[in-house]
User: Fold this.
Amino acid sequence: MTGPTRRTLVTNLLCLGALAWLYGGDLVDALRIRSAEASSFASPPSAVRAGVVLGLAGVGLAVFGVGLLRKQPEGFKGYRLLPILLVGALFVDLVLAEGRAPLDASEMAAVALRHFQEGAQKLATPEAVPSEARVLQPLVDTLGAAPYQVHGVPVGGYALQVRTGCEGPALDTSGTRPGTLLYCAARDGRQAWVTLVGLPAEVRLGAPAVFSLRGEPRIAVIRPRVPEEDGVAPDSEATSISP
Assistant:
């Protein structure tokens, strides 16, 4: 008995490394999500699935080790367990991915903010912007689920807070859950600013903060409708400004 070939040995080591990197990372993220004040995942990793894959990887490694110590020949089936496990796990992930959102959490948040802005802009009149929660809430109800979790529990749909008499956008998120749209209407009713409570686009775990990109808060601006542009939403893109 001569043991496995160098190619088989390297293949198993690479498969073991890939399994540890992919599913070990998922397990760590899943555990960190449970303790995080806020997290931003469109599809949070499953601790159970990652744990099962890593457990099977441990079995495969043990069988491989026994075969190696006993110098089992190249045809020993235990040398195939880790490659088979990696291929099988990736196939299951591919199947499950078909039902997941094609966008990541930050992209989903940006799209939701944009859609809310466009809807609110259509509700504006030439004299004023909308400033009542009962008028704006139907727009929020169409946004679906927010891509945020609190201690591992999804927050569900987006929420809305309407504030009036504002002089600028709300950047303080104290006491507000992730997934909340902060709608601030100016005192004269001629402008409103919308921010989203979540996490910065570059952050996956942390304390709730205003959704931002590269350190700049994403702020959607609503203005009175221009009469000659009836039906057109001016300034349709959310802007980024420094606090």
